[in-house]
Amino acid sequence: MTLRDNLIAAGAATTLAVLVLSFAGVSFADPPPQSKSPVTGYPTWHQDYVDEVYEINYSFTLLALIFSTGAAYGAYRATRGPSRSLTGFVTLATGNEEASTQINEFIQFYINATWVAIVGYLFFDVGKIWAVVGALHNLLEVALLIVLQYGGRVSSLSFALYMFAYICLTIILSVYLPWPFDAVFFRWQGLCSDFGLIVVFVRTYFSTKNQLKAFGDADRHDLELAKAQRAADQLAQDQEQQLRNGVTTSSSQSVTISAAAPANGSHNPLHSLQSGWKKFVALAPTPHGQHSGANGDSSQTPAASHEPRFGGVRASVINLVPANATSGRGNSDTISIVALNQNPSIWGVEWHNPDQILLLVVAAIFHVIGNCMTTIWITNTYALSAFQISYGVSFPLYAYYLYVDNHALRQTKIYLPDTSKIKTFIGACLAIAGATATVRAGLYVSTH
């Protein structure tokens, strides 16, 4: 905890406190009349739109539904079957690493929950009934935040209980609070998680970028990672051979590899590799049975007989030669890096870590822009259209991220940002302040 962190935390907390105090002069004694849903006739969480044309409203809603349907299908296609992502999420403070599988699953669930929310909007419009399905969208945002906060994976019962408590509390308050407190509360809690995703994604991008920069360049990082992969494969072969010989090994056995430290002298998380981490890196190529050595030792299998696979899917191998080595056939300095696509260009874009995280950043920003516009200018038809269009942009970007992560990236790592208490406090204050400022601006515009 540094002085700089303390000053930033104090500034964030002060800003949030000032925003909360600004609500002291807001009067809710005479709320505006609620609009009626054209389908159900029940009250909604907004007033009548100025110069609203139902055909335009439903046209943009259908457009958002079409794009979200495409995003849901694209996410399914990108992640179907065993995860083919070669990305690991690393917590630098502990050295723990998790596969991207659960994060990708939650992003896919997030897209699906959004599709359900859009369908619910078509039938009910936003209101107390819609809150039951709309809360699922926010639930997945909160789940994503928690998964990233805890290193890329959660499996404890407390996580499930927290999610259950969150969804129940959100729905109960949204249903029982009177107008306009129900609408204000639901919008505010949703914006908190929206802004929270921006904060986390931006921090993750810069954390990964800085860590890769410490190696000099991304290629050097992946070379070191390939050495760690080679050590993991050798360890797996040794353990398999020992099991064949009737010798058991401890799951905590570790192997140390000879790898250069980052240029800035900081800790290299690739130096030591626990055998228990093997599931978080690309699996070793499995030789065909007919090519096994006479004694069954796979280490004696000719290299040409190894067929790189990951999750049952044939992979490619990218051969990189360090800058200080001489290229040439049979060069022992050549490092092989597992990849899922020989052509790294996807739709004309060549993806390199951490550029793919920018897809998440842009998707979250578009989503927040749409929500902010319809919160501030709640009766403006153009703001409503922008809100609906933002859904048609954001969630295809989330699906595209899943496609890039599962098909376009070579084996690499994402380094999660510092999750110490003060950093988490600052991030939470920024997210809550963004949501509070947006709601306050909406109340100001609607009363002037």
TrEMBL record:
Residues 218-245 form a coiled coil. Residues 288-307 are annotated as: Disordered. Keywords: Coiled coil, Membrane, Signal, Transmembrane, Transmembrane helix. Residues 292-303 have a biased composition (Polar residues). The chain crosses the membrane at residues 56-76, 106-123, 129-148, 160-179, 185-206, 357-378, 384-404, 425-445. The keyword Kinase does not apply. Residues 1-29 form the signal peptide. This is Uncharacterized protein.
